[in-house]
Amino acid sequence: MKYCAFLRGVNVKGTNMKMADVCQVFKDAGMLDVSSILASGNIVFTSDKNTEDLKKILEKAMSDRFSYDAFLFIKSQEETQVFWNSIPFEKKDDLHIYAFVGNPGIENVLMTEFEAASKTENEKAEIVGEIFYWQVPKGNTLDSSFGKVLGKKSLKDQFTSRNINTFEKILKKMGI
């Protein structure tokens, strides 16, 4: 089965690694057809193992190799496709749209945080199924009130986010 591993906190705040090295860790852990998409920690691979086993195996392998607390969110090809197919906002050149990959229920925690945050014009959020989507004007991602919430230490093992364009690149790599 084809999967994508979404790594949290890669190549930000001092956790730097080359994607070629990350791919090698995946290969050494028994994954096949391993490749990376962008430098933000998106690894496409195949395996006959289930998601829960993959998460344990790969988090341990990454933590051991890079000496950090690795947090990975593993999604099957079909699950990854849902992120792209469920985008609730119209794509516009002056806006970013992010989708959040995380633990079950995190979409509700994120919506609560979003509703409590001050917002800029055209900043909005929506939950589709179990996926939290966030639209924010380009240039405001890190400055927005909600954007600052995303770095909370208490949430670091709960989710990671990707620009929706990343999902398109991942799906192309998966052959969709």
Describe the structure.
- The protein is an alpha+beta fold.
- Helices cover 35% and strands 27% of the residues.
- The chain contains 6 helices and 8 strands, in the order βαββαβαβαββαβα.
- The chain has a 4-stranded antiparallel sheet with strand order 2-3-1-4, sandwiched between helices. Strands 6-7-5-8 form a 4-stranded antiparallel sheet.
- β2 and β3 form a beta hairpin.
- α3 runs antiparallel to α6.
- The longest helix has 16 residues.
- It starts with a strand and ends with a helix.
Q: Output the number of helix runs.
A: 6
Assign the structural class, choosing from mainly alpha, mainly beta, alpha/beta, alpha+beta, or little secondary structure.
Answer: alpha+beta
Helix content class: 25-40%
Radius of gyration, taken over Cα atoms and rounded to an integer in Å = 16 Å
What is the overall pLDDT average?
92
Extract low-pLDDT stretches.
none
